[in-house]
Design a protein that fits this description.
This protein is α+β, with helices and mostly antiparallel strands. It contains 4 helices and 12 strands; from the N terminus they run βααβββββββββββαα. The strands form 3 sheets. An 8-stranded mixed beta sheet has the order 1-2-4-11-8-7-6-9. The radius of gyration is 16 Å and the shape is globular.
């Protein structure tokens, strides 16, 4: 049985879908180009709730970061995981039994910052947790057993999470392709078919939500 990622399951009472897609005309470089302004925008949309969404979302917000430009004609702007936006320090729990596959601090503006990757042998799938707290990496060891529902981390703040408003980037991965402590969380349109298959929708692959969202 899968465990919820946060203290409470998401429901209409405590969460809201957050649209950061290219079709959201409210978003512009003056908002997402400044982390404090971007955070104010997100907090205004959340109204004290948790925001979630973003799987296979086409986003323009990545144009502010050089690390998403693979080539001039192959920009990475399709989001492969699901983001959960809320306060820094919010605890995160392992949804399935598994073990620590790898972890590291992925440095640079727009990157994951501290990242944890678990492997779940029974399901033969990996789970990635990006933008966590740096302190959460300290007790980890590769191969460390993790129980379903075990506390594994907390949302990091903007000074340690790659310069983003606090949120969790959560992603399922079928094949790690040799990556350790990191895996692409954004792809180009050219590679979308592969990554959509290798990184299934968190909302469907396992039930992370209250039945109100099913």
């Amino acid at each position: 049985m899968i465990h919820r990622l946060f203290t409470e399951p998401l429901s209409l009472r405590n969460s809201v879908v957050l649209d950061l897609s290219a079709t959201n005309l409210e978003l512009n470089p003056s908002i997402y180009g400044n982390v404090s302004t971007f955070q104010d925008y997100i907090e205004g949309k959340l109204g004290g709730k948790m925001g979630f969404g973003g799987y296979l979302e086409h986003r323009v917000i990545y144009e502010s970061y050089e690390n998403f430009a693979m080539a001039s004609t192959d920009f990475r702007n399709i989001h492969l995981g699901m983001d959960f936006w809320t306060k820094a320090g919010t605890p995160i729990f392992a949804p399935l039994k598994g073990e620590v596959h790898s972890f590291q601090a992925n440095q640079g503006a727009g990157n994951y910052g501290p990242t944890i990757i678990l492997y779940h042998p029974a399901e033969k799938i990996y789970s990635l947790y990006g933008h966590v707290s740096m302190a959460d990496l300290v007790p980890l060891e590769i191969g460390l057993p993790i129980a379903a529902g075990q506390l594994i981390g907390h949302l990091g703040n903007t000074t340690e999470n790659g310069g983003w408003p606090p949120h969790l980037h959560f992603q399922w991965i079928r094949d790690m392709q040799g990556f350790h402590g990191d895996y692409p969380g954004v792809c180009s349109q050219r590679d979308l078919l592969f990554y959509a298959n290798n990184c299934p929708d968190p909302a469907n692959f396992y039930p992370l939500f209250n039945h109100e969202f099913r």
